[in-house]
Write a structure and sequence with these properties.
The protein has 451 residues and is of the alpha/beta class. The chain folds into three domains: 122 residues, Probable tRNA modification gtpase trme, domain 1 (Gyrase A, domain 2, 2-Layer Sandwich), CATH 3.30.1360; 121 residues, tRNA modification GTPase MnmE domain 2 (Four Helix Bundle (Hemerythrin (Met), subunit A)); 154 residues, Rossmann fold. The protein contains 14 helices and 13 strands. Strands 3-4-5-6-2-1-7 form a seven-stranded mixed β-sheet. A six-stranded mixed β-sheet has the order 9-10-8-11-12-13, with helices on both faces. Strand 9 and strand 10 form a beta hairpin. The two termini are 16 Å apart. About 1% of the residues have low confidence.
């Protein structure tokens, strides 16, 4: 990492502010060569962290922008290296010209996530924190942002480290007793060891199980919109999204395939899946769509069952209600409330009357989803949100459980060393203390350029 990198750290659209970001040994000289404070002093005459007003000029001396600049010295920076930023007006043309000027000063284009990767390699962030940066950028709900912010603040790291410290103490005791049998050292207390292993195995198991909820925070709760053809499924999808995503006609069977979009409703991120109308059909293409719809319903966490309020209840409606009842959560929606009401439903069935045309009932739908899914969450940062972490934590939990069972079966303490060491190695993968170059490369590929 002897070279210096630069990138536009803001989006490629017109905005109030656009940022050019640099990291590496030549960051400050490169910026000083093209940024000139209005005071007539040099940028380095000001202390690190001070925002300085000046002009950005190209290599010929022409003014590109009047802007602000600042710099930081290693190791007191995000990446742990010398860094600098130029805060321009957010013109893509100005930012591109400024970046090109920096390139001519020997700076190179940063790759995806390279700033955060340098922060990780320089010990400024562990791998949990680094992945939390990407989650924070991608967060689509307040809960997702809070969980990512908690992980960035080392909540998850401290939780993992507490368990790892227990295992290190256990291993150290093992090795001391085995290597120095003649010393006056507390002997193994099998019951205490089993309790330690079991306690940490349970803690890791709960942490692994949090991945399901954490994944819903980042990817959305799978929500299938189901019903007979022409019940208003696509109209509801469009109403919830706020734009026409699905084709809507009066012809039953218009939707032949599943249509998927994300939507935040009641503070909850939903992965809405508009499905083909569920009915028996001889049409090959429509039948394939119906099969996909049933598969989407089977995998959904929430089913929104649409019943046409302007039509009487049919055997197909009853079959759909029964199939949707297998989902963890089901909401029955009576659509087309702007038309004369004909549908009669059993008194024990709860439903919400809606109209995608007028918006009636959508607020009740939103509140119902909020009450079901916006439950009290664990402490911010205590939910796993990616498969890599969950898999490693799961391996650690299984290894500790195996070690405890081995002791309970009468095996000598030294026989469980391999399992305990395996659990510790898995936890070190989570934090990045021991992780391969290929794994880190793949992790940082998901980042945007400039972060």
């Amino acid at each position: 990492m002897a070279d210096t990198i630069a990138a536009i750290a803001t989006g490629p659209v017109r905005s109030a502010i656009g940022i050019l970001r640099l990291s590496g040994p030549e960051s400050v000289p490169a910026v000083s060569a093209c940024f000139f404070p209005l005071s007539g002093r040099k940028l380095t005459d000001y202390p690190p962290g001070r925002l300085v007003l000046g002009t950005l000029r190209d290599e010929e001396g022409s003014v590109l922008d009047q802007c602000l600049a600042t710099y930081s010295r290693a190791p007191h920076s995000y990446t742990g290296e010398d860094t600098a930023e130029i805060q321009c007006h957010g013109s893509p043309a100005v930012l591109a010209a400024g970046l090109e000027t920096l390139f001519r000063r020997g700076v190179r284009q940063a790759g995806p996530g390279e700033f955060t990767r340098r922060a990780f390699l320089n010990g400024q962030l562990d791998l949990i924190q680094a992945e939390a940066v990407a989650d924070l950028i991608d967060a689509q709900t307040t809960d997702a942002a809070r969980n990512a912010a908690g992980q960035l603040g080392r909540v998850m790291t401290r939780k993992i480290q507490t368990i790892a410290d227990d295992l290190v103490d256990l291993l150290a005791h093992f090795h001391v007793v085995l290597d120095y049998p003649d010393e006056d050292i507390d002997p193994f207390r099998e019951e205490e060891i089993i309790q330690t292993l079991g306690r940490n195995a349970r803690a890791l198991g709960l942490l692994r199980d949090s991945y399901r909820r954490g994944r819903q925070l980042t990817e959305g709760i799978p929500c299938a919109i189901v019903g007979r053809p022409n019940a208003g499924k696509s109209s509801l999808l469009n109403a919830l999204l706020g734009y026409d995503r699905a084709i809507v006609t009066n012809v039953p069977g218009t939707t032949r395939d599943t249509v998927e979009e994300r939507c935040v409703l009641g503070g909850v991120l939903l992965r809405l899946i508009d499905t083909a109308g569920l009915r028996e059909t001889e049409d090959l293409v429509e039948r394939m769509g119906v099969e996909r719809s049933r598969a989407a319903l089977a995998q959904a966490e929430l089913a929104l069952v649409l019943l046409d309020g302007s039509q009487p209840l049919t055997a197909e409606d009853e079959a759909i209600l029964a199939e949707a009842a297998k989902c963890p959560h089901r909401l029955v929606l009576v659509s087309k409330s702007d038309l004369p009401h004909v549908l009669a439903l059993p008194e024990e069935l709860e439903w919400i009357t809606i109209s995608a045309l007028t918006g009636q009932g959508l607020d009740l739908l939103e509140e119902s989803i909020r009450s079901r899914f916006a439950r009290q969450l664990p402490r911010q940062g205590e939910m796993l949100t990616n498969a890599r972490q969950a898999e490693a934590v799961g391996r650690a939990a299984e290894a500790l459980q195996a070690a405890a069972e081995a002791l309970e079966c009468g095996l000598t303490p030294d026989a469980v060393l391999t399992d305990v060491e395996g659990a510790l190695a898995a936890l070190n993968e989570v934090t990045g203390k021991s992780v391969t170059e290929e794994v880190t490369r793949r992790i940082f590929q998901r980042f945007c350029v400039g972060k």
